[in-house]
Design goal:
- The complex is a heterodimer of chains A (278) and B (600).
- By secondary structure, chain A is of the alpha+beta class.
- In chain A, 17% of the residues lie in helices and 53% in strands.
- In chain A, strands 1-2-3-4-5-6-7-8-10-11-12-13 form a twelve-stranded antiparallel barrel.
- With 600 residues, chain B is mainly beta.
- Helix content of chain B is 9%, strand content 31%.
- The chains are: A alpha+beta (278), B mainly beta (600).
- The interface between A and B is large, with 50 and 78 residues.
Amino acid sequence: MDRTIHDLSQQAFERILSDIQSCITMTMMKRVSTFLFTVLIVAITGTSAFAQKAPEFSNDLMMGDKTYLFLIADRLEYSSISGSNPLVWDAQGYLGNSVNRFWFKAEGEALTTEKEGETELQGLYSRAIGSYFDLQAGIRYDFAYNREFNQSRAFGVIGFQGLAPYFFEVDGGLFVSEDGDISASFEAEYDLLLTQRLIGQPRLATKVAVQEVEQWGVGSGFNDIQLGFRLRYEIKREFAPYIGISWTRKLGETADFSRLEGGEVGTLGLVGGVRIWF
Amino acid sequence: MISRRTFLRYTVAMGAMAGVSSLLPAYAFSGFKNQDVLTPQGPDNVIDLTISKKTITIAGKKTRATTINGTVPGPLIRLREGQDITLRVTNKLDEDTSIHWHGILLPFQMDGVPGVSFDGIKPGETFEYRYPVRQSGTYWYHSHSGLQEQLGHYGPMIIDPADNDPVEYDREYPVVLGDWTFEDPYEVLENLVKQDGYYNFQQRTMGEFLRDSRKDGLGSALKNYGMFGKMRMSATDLLDITGATYTHLMNGRGPDSNWTALFKKGEKVRLRFINASAGTTAFDVRIPGMKMTVVQTDGQNVEPIPVDEFRIGIAETYDVIVEPKEEKAFTIFAESLDRSSYARGTLAPREGMEAPVPKLRPRPVRSMKDMGMKMDMAGMDMDEGNMKMEGMDHGEHGNMNMDHGNMQMSAKAADPVKHGPDHHGISAAAIADYQFDRLDEPGIGLGNDGRKVLVYRDLKSLDPNTDEREPGREVELHLTGNMERYMWSFDGKEFHEVDGPIEFKHNERLRLILVNDTMMEHPIHLHGMWMEMENGNGQYNPRKHTLLVQPGQRISARVTPRDKGRWAFHCHILYHMERGMFRVVQVADEEGSIYGQDYS
């Protein structure tokens, strides 16, 4: 209210000023205006500045719980594995603040030599349960296709993700499929600084299942183990091309299923790609 | 309403001096004279300030800045103790703005913190700040709205004492240190939220590990790297934002632009250093070949202390006297704490002269003490500086023979204090298990090269503090943070999580204890009242408006809240404040009122 009156009085006063501008010097005007202005303000508001009411206490003044959108494609690569030469993606991100986040993950591959591929999508609520760790819960949806058919299945997920001692980025999940089959996955990565921008990244991932699910080529026990080493160069923090090697070995019953299908049990390939985030 | 006359006079003066029109304040030019300042005009002692966006040139690059009266930094405001002044601030931005008068004791409604002391200044509006000037010294002013300060919204303010100045000088210059980024500050913050080491290009690499192994032995290097790894702390976490994006400024000029202060041989030159950095930059200031005598900090006179170097945290001020005895140029060198960049100027008898610019020293690494861990040699107050965790392995590599420089093995240093059971939750990635006195330590990377570096213990007020009462109670606050999530807080609570102010009673005497549970320095600023830092000088403890608290440090100050109201209290690293290291201190009388103070 005071502010409006203040504005009006200021405007009115500026009009008067412009009228008399021609007949007095700038110096005079300044003195007079300062004086009149003060008189006006005091007359209109009838208050001294020191009695001004301050705003009520509010804790909503800063950006401590601002929501950010983060997306990262940690691996986006072409792999030279004889016979399949797959494109591989491993992307994730969140929408949220420091503590509460909607987290999404997408991982999969598509062969470039034939029509075949699979992808895994997760949508999770993620909550900080420690300085370095989030507890995550949500759903996962798998989709696989080849020339003859495609199939999908859904899971409930509970998992964790964060930074373990010695700077290992770890990510683990426990999955219960719509048919009640239980499985788990675990992944760990480490950044090894060769220089400030040239960074080696060893990576380990493994899957384990309780029940055998033949339709998906999953045996009970350890399914597979993946080891990789990627060497990236951070042109910008957000943009780093890389080369590396990736080795995957199917294990136990899962390997047997693969053999039956005439597939490879172990693959070793050179990879090239880009790590990108924003 | 802008005072056109003042504005014109100002720009004309600047143009004349530079020979070209420029967007730098008058004191950025070597012909600067003390009349080229903003002083109160007319019977009401009015000063007009206009905040607007302008395209300016920094380090040869054009960029958009938030300017005050058209320049970065803003003009030098010069007041006299005892004046009743009116500062009319006009907002020509398309967003709210504000000016906070840093270190000034005033009615809290005039303190300029939107949402705490007033509603802010809306676009197109003019706000009148009116207050009696009740102190003297070197101060500054800056925006308290969003991240505007990072875009140039700051300037120096000098208040001359009503009586004679106890500091003698023939000539004086403000030396406003700043950090500039050509990025959008909101993007800078977002980058830090998404990747904590985004701007750190001085991390420890494999190569450094091998070098350390060769030097200290594989076992020792593994132990050291392992310790940081186990704690998930980066030993090179020195400043969040570095020279990777910052151009460091001295009076608005980049290092190559070389701000020059002229002197005549034999003169006493008073340099009023103000660290107006917005980001994270603490500077280490020295003038090679010249002793500096520190005479004032945070606007308050101290007993003169001759030093070779001093660290200035964000928002702190230090006044030094130098007496150049030769007709030659001296470099004023302000190195960032992490050694990634520097601001630089020249002290010279004539314009256009230059002195050699020192090399940046090697960046230091954090120590166990910085992590609040006790070393083997209990109670020994060592500054690790560039040394690496030698506390773990004292005997082996003969660190006992090291040159401890100006380090004082002070008997006055308090014993380490053990941290309590509260670990402050998620937003505190670590706590200082042991909290150290550290008042005799100049800070990381300093004091081990033979230079006399100022330490907080050195500061002794020139005049006694008037409140002789012992503190009636203690208020302890822990500085907490989580670099990984970029969360910053007090006692593990970010500002948006607290439901009320910290309560101080009007005119009570209390002890404010600050404990730094993080591994970084934090400049903690309390608005509206002095912190009389308890450094063993009794009634002559120095008065500070901003305390640079070292990692793992426990520091205390006596406080008498003489002015009622609501006052901001926060880390002056802008991004830490915005991420939650902020509180409101409420000073109320016995009736619970924050109003009705008599300032006559």
